[in-house]
Design goal:
Layout: H1 3-8, H2 15-24, H3 32-46, H4 49-59, H5 65-90, H6 107-110, H7 115-129, H8 132-144, H9 149-175
Helix pairs in contact: 2-9, 3-4, 3-5, 3-7, 3-9, 5-7, 7-8, 7-9
């Protein structure tokens, strides 16, 4: 399915999401790689196959194979880390924070693309997944490396709309 067809299949009650995705994919605060990597990582994290397949096909026209792989790596690693670190944040037992994570995260160092872009995708997926500890860690790293708040928020906007659309498409598929 093309992106245009996906957007046309959006129910009228979610018209704002449809319009938002169209405009957010053209935000000037993000580079093309940042935009499409964010969209791809968030689509994978959304677990909605219709949205993932469509945005993946479109992203492949804007991203190198290495950037495609890195965006998917960011989504996969945050899918794991967001659960682990959210648990540490939510529990009142401070002993857990002293125990090593013992989770492989090599992809954070071996993705092969611009570090800030990868961190931006990690931030967006972490926002989708509701992990405050990971959001704080990744966004602070970006700010420390000179990435502006407007750029970070532009990626989070994409995450919010992709998440909203995934919910709509999931509900519509269930209702059919």
């Amino acid at each position: 399915m093309t992106l245009e067809a996906l957007l046309e299949s959006t129910p009228s009650y979610a018209k704002d999401l449809k319009l938002n995705l169209s405009s957010l994919l053209r935000q000037t605060e993000l580079t093309e790689q940042q935009t499409w990597g964010t969209a791809l990582a968030c689509a994978l994290a959304s677990r909605n196959m219709k949205l993932y397949e469509t945005l993946s096909a479109e992203a492949s026209r804007h991203l190198s194979p290495q950037a495609m792989e890195a965006a998917k790596t960011a989504a996969a690693l945050m899918g794991m880390n967001n659960i682990f670190y959210r648990f540490l944040h939510l529990t009142s037992n401070s002993k857990y924070a002293t125990i090593p994570a013992r989770l492989r995260m090599n992809g954070i160092r071996t993705h092969g693309i611009d570090h800030n872009d990868f961190e931006l995708w990690c931030t967006a997926v972490s926002a989708m997944n509701g992990c405050g500890a990971c959001v704080e860690s990744h966004q602070q790293g970006l700010v420390d490396r000179g990435v502006g708040e407007e750029t970070i928020l532009a990626a989070v906007r994409i995450a919010s709309v992709v998440h909203g659309l995934a919910g709509v498409f999931d509900a519509e598929a269930t209702a059919s």
